[in-house]
Each structure stands twice: as structure tokens, then as C-alpha cells.
Design brief:
The complex is a heterodimer of chains A (about 90) and B (about 90). Chain A is mainly beta and about 90 residues long. Helix content of chain A is about 0%, strand content about 40%. A five-stranded mixed beta barrel of chain A has the order 1-2-3-5-4. Chain B is mainly beta and about 90 residues long. The chains are: A mainly beta (about 90), B mainly beta (about 90). Chains A and B meet through strand 4, strand 5 and strand 6 of A and strand 1, strand 3 and helix 1 of B.
């Protein structure tokens, strides 16, 4: 998993049926020092995250697991909201 | 699998129900010389690892899910062992 910050959302029309009702959020991956790492991604949200929140997300097929049994065609998914973290 | 160092802990109240009870730790993958290799990651802990410990991690969903004894948990990294020693021939 990786930390990220939600910076926006994506609205689709004419989407794949299995994406109906799935919230898509723009996530900037960040380090534990809150510095941006790499490119912004679009992730499926299953925990009710909102813009400005710190979250953690999975990459790969596991991103679709929270939506089981619907097979959502997602490769990144937010699986939790990061309340706080401590390094060292 | 990769060698890594546990660098920190994460608190997350609101998370996927399959992650309830799972400990989430920051891990920094290492080279054989113990220098950082690539970005830090968040991994679920399957072995009771602590901060500063050197661990073995898997970066694959099914294996990570097995490590916390959950079926189809939405995880992609897990700590599966605490490293005692690495011998390079």
C-alpha cells in the first residue's frame, strides 16, 4: 500500500457498467514526510474518503476486492483513511 | 520478496473491514548493503514486527492476504518474517 492525498474527483458518463456507483478520486501519492511522490492516479474509493484527506491505497487487482462480487475494472483503490502516522 | 526496514506505524480508524485488526507499518525496502532502495511502502504485519526491525516483505496481493489470514483482503504488501541474518556467499 502507499500513502496519498485526495486532491479531486473524476466523474464519468458512458462508463463500464461495473463502475456504476463507484466513486473515483484523484490521489497524489505522498511520502510519510508528506512530499508528493510520482504521478497523480485515479483510484476507486470504498471507504468514503473526501478531498483533502490522507488515505492509503492498493495497486493491482486487489483494488477491486472491496466491491466483490462486482468485478470492478480498477487498478488502484483506496482502502483506508490515514488518521495519523509516526516515523521512527 | 524484499528485505526492508520497518520505519513507522500508521493509525487508520476507517478502513476496509478486511483490514480490521491488521497492523499497518511503513517499510523501507533495502539493498543487500542496507541502503534504501526505492520508495517506502505500507505493509500489513503478519508476524508482530516492530519499528527499526529488518523484515521480509511480499509485494503481491494473494500472498499478502494470506499473511494476515484473510481471504481476498485488498492488500498488496505484507511483512512475512523478521530477519535474523542474511548471508551473502
Amino acid at each position: 500500500m502507499q500513502l496519498g492525498k485526495v486532491i479531486g474527483n473524476v466523474v464519468l458518463n458512458n462508463q463500464n457498467d461495473t463502475l456504476t456507483g463507484v466513486k473515483l478520486l484523484l490521489v497524489q501519492p505522498i511520502s510519510s514526510a508528506r512530499e508528493p511522490i510520482g504521478r497523480v492516479i485515479v483510484a476507486a474509493d470504498s471507504v468514503g474518503a473526501g478531498v483533502g484527506e490522507h488515505v492509503f491505497f492498493v495497486r493491482g487487482k486487489e483494488a477491486s476486492f472491496p466491491f466483490h462480487p462486482t468485478e470492478v475494472p480498477a487498478d488502484a483503490g483506496i482502502v483506508g483513511i490515514a488518521d495519523s502516522w509516526h516515523i521512527g | 520478496m524484499l528485505l526492508a526496514r520497518v520505519t513507522g506505524t500508521l493509525v487508520a480508524t476507517q478502513k476496509n473491514r478486511k483490514l480490521e485488526g491488521a497492523k499497518l507499518l511503513f517499510v523501507q525496502p533495502l539493498t543487500l548493503e542496507d541502503t534504501p532502495r526505492g520508495p517506502e511502502l505500507l505493509a500489513v504485519d503478519g508476524v508482530g514486527a516492530g519499528v527499526h526491525e529488518k523484515v521480509l516483505i511480499v509485494l503481491e496481493g494473494r500472498a499478502a492476504s494470506d499473511a494476515i489470514e484473510k481471504k481476498a483482503a485488498p492488500v498488496d504488501a505484507a511483512i512475512i518474517g523478521i530477519v535474523d541474518r542474511v548471508d551473502v556467499a
